[in-house]
Design brief:
Blueprint (H helix, E strand, L loop, with lengths): L3 H12 L3 E8 L2 E7 L5 E6 L3 E5 L2 E5 L21 H15 L4 E6 L5 E5 L3 E5 L10 E5 L9 E4 L6
Antiparallel strand pairs: 1-2, 2-3, 3-9, 4-5, 4-8, 6-7, 7-8, 9-10
Length: 159
């Protein structure tokens, strides 16, 4: 049996107080890089739909990866020249000037992950598949093999 509530609590403990540093992508996976309250390198990897909001306005979303920037050709995705990529540059500039401390983390029973930080910023990650595929992962890049700090959803797929 998966101890989902324990994992939710551990994810909250990892992320609350962390500073959000940047957003980006690796192919179609969204990546949010953070620095933990003790200086550890943290990340959120989203393989399902996600969006980043400022107050109630969407700044960028996973679907933006499908659309090339104006004037780019068919290689826009491979060249990191999509609407997502141009929005990420702007968002990262803003994040670089913010004190982006995570203040709230919610994880629903269906795996929706909501992370809120200062200045009205919110990351929403929402799994959309019933199949056995990883939707998202929160990880501590500085953790060792003996100390697991790596949590993926669905919980029963966790490595």
């Amino acid at each position: 049996m998966v101890d989902a509530e324990r994992k939710r609590d551990e994810i909250r403990a990892m992320l609350i107080g962390a500073n959000v540093g940047s957003v980006g992508r690796a192919l179609t996976m969204g990546i949010v890089e953070l620095t933990g309250s003790r200086g550890q390198r943290l990340a959120i990897h989203a393989q399902c739909p996600f969006r980043l909001l400022h107050d109630e306005k969407i700044l960028l979303g996973s679907a933006d990866m499908k659309f090339p920037q104006r004037g780019t050709g068919t290689a826009a995705f491979d060249e990191f020249r999509t609407i997502f990529d141009s929005a990420a540059v702007i968002v990262n500039d803003i994040l670089g000037r913010l004190d982006g401390l995570v203040s709230e983390v919610q994880i629903s029973s269906g795996g929706a992950l909501i992370v809120r930080w200062s200045a009205g910023m919110t990351l929403e990650v929402f799994p959309d598949s019933s199949g056995p595929v990883e939707a998202w992962r929160v990880l501590d890049r500085d953790a060792t093999v003996s100390i697991q700090r790596d949590y993926g959803f669905p919980w029963d797929l966790d490595i």
